[in-house]
Amino acid sequence: HLLVCVLFVSNGALCQCGGEREAHDSVATGDYFGEAIVTQWDSRQHSSECPTDAYGELEFAGAARKHSHFLRLSCDTSPQTVYTLMTARWGLPLPNLVVSVVGGEGNEKVKTWVRDVLRNGLVRAAQSTGAWILTGGLREGLGRCVGEAVRDHGAAAPAKLVNAQGSFPARYYVQNTSRDSYCLDNNCQAFLLVDDGTIGRRGGETVFRGRLEDYISHQRTGIWGSGSIEIPVLCMLISGDANMLERLDVSLGKATPWLVLAGSGSAADFISELLDNLSSVSLTSTSPPAEEGAEGLIASLRDMVRDKLQRYFPAEIELEKLVDRALSIYQKREFITVFHGEQEGSDDFDIVLLKALVRASKRVSSEANECTDELKLAVAWNRVDIAKTELFNGDIQWKYEDLEDSMTDALINNKPQFVRLFCENGLNILNYLTYRRLEGLYRSLSDSSLAYVLLQRRLSERLTAPLKSRKSARTGPPSARELNLFEVSRLLWDLLGDVCQPFYYKTLDLNPSTSTRKALRQVNKMLLGECKYRDQRCLSPWAALFIWAVLQNRCEMAVYFWEMAGESVLSALGGCKMLRELSKLESETESKLAMKELAQKFEDLAHDVFGECYQSSESRSFTLLIRKSPVWGGATCLQMATAADARKFFSHDGVQSLLSQIWWGDMERSTEVWKLLLTFFMPPLLYSDLISFKALEEDDNSVEVYHGRDTDSLDGNDATVYSLRPFIVSRWRQFWFSPVTSFLGNVLMYFLFLYLFAYVLLVDFKPPPPDGPSTLEVVLYFWVFTFVCEEIRQTFFVGSTFVLQRMRSYIEDVWNKCDLTAITLFILAVMFPWSYLVGRAVMAIDFMVFTLRLIHIFAVHKQLGPKIIIVGKMMKDVFFFLFFLAVWLLAYGVANQALLYAYDPRPDWIFRRVFYRPYLHIFGQIPIHEMDADKLVEIPCTNNATLVEAGAEPCMSTYANWLVVILLAIYLLFTNIVLVNLLIAMFSHTFSKVQEHSDTYWKFQRYNLIKEYHSRPCLAPPFIIISHLHLFIKRCFRQIPSVKSKHFVLELLGKKASCLDAWEAIQKENLLSAQNKRKRESDTVRIKSTSVKQDMSNPQHGLGFLPDGCASGNTSRARRPGDVLGSSPGMHKTI
């Protein structure tokens, strides 16, 4: 609202409100009876509120800057409404500190050192702490100095439209003004035009400004008010007149701290001298007896204060009133801090602000710990440098209870440096992180983050899940309607898939194999009662915090938690997987790119740490890759790297060395292929020296590597008992159960299958009974049946514990889709024989699909493997090419048909002439005798529509033949030259992009092939049916658990697991130390290089260094405050 004068009280030509008679309405000027009685105009009695008509954006004409917000409001407006408008509608960032600068109005000259304090002290402190600065908003005196300091530091924050529906910004023209009037400062980000009903009078905003400061001081810092302290408000007095004493006294009555700049001007100098002199008088005076001495002391104090007032304010008349104000101020001196800027300088001005606020907070609460209050302020301002130098310098012994709230504040508001500082100085993360606090961290997520949106979806699904009882989660206690670990677990399951078991299921007393619907009911039932798990300590606190930080895409904090967590390689790969899945769901481009960059960073960290481990110990690094992690739900590094598509990690020599070792089994990796082929067809050569095998007496580490390899055989024993078997059996198993042998057998038998299929299709494909089928046909049918059995085994008996998840994983593989297509076509051709010719045609197409399946076999070859990827990517390019080609085909084909033939309703010929013939034109097959009128061939034709409909050939029209030739030329120009060359360019780009990283692609593809043949039975189709029968007997009758369901998995417990974790942590520390050392060396080289350049460019000068943050260019690293918020006639603010 705004205030409007409703009664004209004459003060000469003007009303006492300051407005002219013409500015008042007829009711205000016509009340002569009231005017005769009322002699003193009062804003509260003689003004009324009406809706404001001045709000929106303010554009300063000629100023190249963003628009400022502005609002005209009544001095009685609720501060809550204004604060909500500024933060929620205008988008101003929530402040961590509010500094209200008062004094120095009008034409009073501001001293040079005060300007320096404002520029290098106050504004820099505001930038580093995320503060708001409230000043007058006019280009005069002190307000102008603050605005210019903000402008020079580049501290303007972005603005948003107030009226989202769109209102043109109000244009503000800066004109030459008189000495008694001033314009608005265009460095302000927002203006609050406080209206008390007067015109052209100062001080109308003072009351509202005080109420706004008091309201903000009761709000909390941080995201969603999650900070550990209320927003500190500090008033800063610079110079000022006698009216400032009343402002100071009222504000001190609300326990608002003040910082007085001694030496800046009248009021500030008076307060400084008052506090110093009265304190010395109180200390030197003795205690006189009874009342006479007390009265004498008070009288002497009043005389002293009166003398000072006369010296600083000689024009003031009501001295006794000012004396009372001064003594009242002195009684609240604990809230006042005096800053001697000329002696102390502006370098440590932020520490001065901190001390002043801590001093005031100690006065408000006698139980407050001064160090704890300083720490909370430092956290709110994100000033870890102050905390290190002032609070964590070794003089204070911090307890866990002192750091607990500040730790939560630092976590929620993304202050990783403070998190690191607290953990290094007394905070035990094991005691800190309970499941209740972890749920609180997830509830504190910003509502604009992707993780928050996904968690809310999971929460709504749980709340709508039906229960058997009448109670539901919606009608239960508030804790049942809030986010909990079950929603987090479901989100992680969506991101990580079946790579690992669901997180926190053990904590929630859930079975990992439980269906989602049943788990929802159990969780809702548990939440309706007492949740005992929330008071338990988190078993893996660093890993839990790492996941929490990764879900929010907080780079620095996630990296720190990764450094502190165990299982460094697996944790980095897990973070990479989650971030890449989140980037697929993120719609904002900047957030998507940030997630991809952080995912790549974690993949690089996993690669580098594993490289350090591989250099230290090859056998231990192999164990690290296949070790089953209890923290990450039983996942291994290889499984997580596959899910995360971590090609760079797979390209590491250590990973490839393990894969080669598993691929060759117990045979030497240098064995030639011809020796394998020869032994394959002549098995007795196994017992000769043709192929070299590893010795059976291997160390424990190497045996551990093979523990997860599937060794199901006809006798059902495992390969870990080689020494107990006779030499003949053990050597037999060493050869036939190696993945390379299984691969070789499958390749040879597949070529034989294709030869049989081709022979049957071309020579021996018989009609249905009684003429067929032939003997070779029956063999072919049985062979395909064994393929079907193997695909069923891969679909339902390999992978996740959930059948649907297994089926989904199976379908996602491209080559499995190819297998399904081939088998489906074969079944259609055989089981549904509509006719002999149809079945034979389907079989011919099916043979093509089976033959294309050979491409997958070439993936094992180092040169051919990358080419398969290139061909796959080129197929995507072809689809884009066909889209453009179809547009030209349709356009040219329809036009060509319409110009050549006036009427031809035959559908087959329309399709042929619209699509088929234009497509052949690209390859040079152009029927000139049917298109060019000069070369037409005489053929029987008719123009009779009835005969044409009966099937006769229509005659070609020669009317627009010249246009047909032109369209043909244009069509060939674009298709043969433009589109074909575009396709070639796309192919070249794809080839060069893949070929550049061909080795990386091949190594990643090789892992999938090795894993597939590692899990397959040793016998190839069609003999694989024997292995299937054997496995069926083992599982169903002998109840022997499957080893093949776990690929490359090794479970370590107890001392072995602890030793491996400690060894991995040591290698990670070595890597981080080496990286930090290289960084320091590079910084040193850069500084030396800069020094040399400086000496060469300025040989007559010495070389000097500025402290960090002194140069204006360094301000970009600090938090950017907002601009100046102003009010008329006297308020503006810097954020």
From TrEMBL:
This is Transient receptor potential cation channel, subfamily M, member 4a. Residues 1087-1098 have a biased composition (Polar residues). InterPro entries: Ion_trans_dom, TRPM, TRPM-like, TRPM_SLOG. The chain crosses the membrane at residues 735-760, 816-835, 841-859, 879-903, 962-984. Residues 1077-1098, 1113-1135 are annotated as: Disordered. It is a multi-pass membrane protein. It is found in: Membrane. It comes from the Eukaryota. Residues 69-272 form the TRPM SLOG domain. Its main location: membrane. Residues 390-652 form the TRPM-like domain. Keywords: Ion channel, Ion transport, Membrane, Signal, Transmembrane, Transmembrane helix, Transport. Residues 750-998 form the Ion transport domain. Coiled coil: none annotated. GO terms for cellular component: plasma membrane. GO terms for molecular function: calcium-activated cation channel activity; ligand-gated calcium channel activity. PANTHER family: TRANSIENT RECEPTOR POTENTIAL CATION CHANNEL SUBFAMILY M MEMBER 4, TRANSIENT RECEPTOR POTENTIAL CATION CHANNEL, SUBFAMILY M, MEMBER 6. Residues 1-15 form the signal peptide.
